[in-house]
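retry 2 of 3: previous attempt timed out while embedding 2-oxoglutaric acid. Reduced batch size to 1 and resubmitted. Inputs unchanged:
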Amino acid sequence: MMNVLSAQDKQRWRQDGYLVLPGFFEQAATEEMLGRARQLLDEFDVEGHPLTTFKTEADGEHVGDDYFIGSNDKIRYFLEPSSLSKPAPGAPSKLLVPPAQSINKIGHALAQLDPVFRKYTLENEKVANVAKDLGYHQSPRVLQSMIICKQPRIGGVVPSHNDSTFLYTDPPSAVGCWIALEECTPQNGCLSFLPGSHKTARVSSRFVKDPSGRGTTFESVAGVEPNEEKWDELDGWVEAACPAGTLVLIHGNVMHRSPPNPSDKSRLIYTFHMIEGAEGYTYDEKNWLQPTKDMPFPALF
Ligand SMILES: O=C(O)CCC(=O)C(=O)O
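retry 2 succeeded.
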C-alpha cells in the first residue's frame, strides 16, 4: 500500500483532530470535479422543486422535510435560505437569484450515483489509502456525499458543530473528507477549527428524524453530559485557508465552523463522510439519513 500520510501528519491528526493536505488531488482531477459541480448547478430546474432550504442553526426552525430526509439515494438540491423571498403567509416563495446561484448544497448520493464524484471517492485508490493510513476505521462506510457551494454574497454561515452529532453512531465514529474545489480563504468562507477539541467535545446530542413524522430535530444522547464550553468564545480557533485540490480530514468530535461568504468569489467544495461499519458500532433508524435496501452505505475498501 502506498503511504499517503507521514508520521508528522498522523501526529498532527491525533493532536488537532483535523488534517489539511494541500495538493492531495492533482489539478486535472480537481478541475474535473469543479466542472461537474458547475454542470450540476446549471442543470438545476426549479420547476417542481419543493424549495427545500438547508439551515444549520441548532435552535432554528426544523431544517428538513421529506425531500431532505429521503436524499440518501438521490442527487437533490437544497437552497440557500437567503435565496428565497419571504412572502406573506400562504403565498409562494420566489427565487431572488438565478437558479444556479441559489443552491446551498447538492446531495447526498454523489459518491454512488455521479460518475465523476464516484471516481474520486469509491473508485479512488489514493482516497482508500488515506483512510487505511489514518487507521481510524476498520471498515469505513461512505455516506452523505455532497457539494457545498457558499455562493458569492449569499453563502451562509455554518455554525460551530462536530460531525458525529449529525452522523451519529454508537460509539461515535464519523470522519469527514472535505475537498476544496476552489481556493478557500477567510473572505469566501474557509473552514475554521478549534484544534484539539475532539479530545474534549462530547457527542451529547444527535440529529434525528422528528418523532412527529416530519422534519428533523436534535435528541439528547442518554448518559452523555453536554459540554459546558461556549465553543465560539474560546481562544485558539484556526482558519484552514487552502488551495483547490486540498483534502481536509475532519475527526467526528472536533469543533469546526465556517463564516458566510460576502465576497464575489464562490467557494465550491465536495465532501463525503465515513463511519465505522465493523461490528460493535450501531447506526440506528433514528438518524435523519437512512441507508436504503437498494443503496446501503458503501464500503470504501
Ligand atoms: O463546508 C463548510 O463550510 C462546512 C462543512 C462542514 O462543516 C462539514 O462538512 O462538517
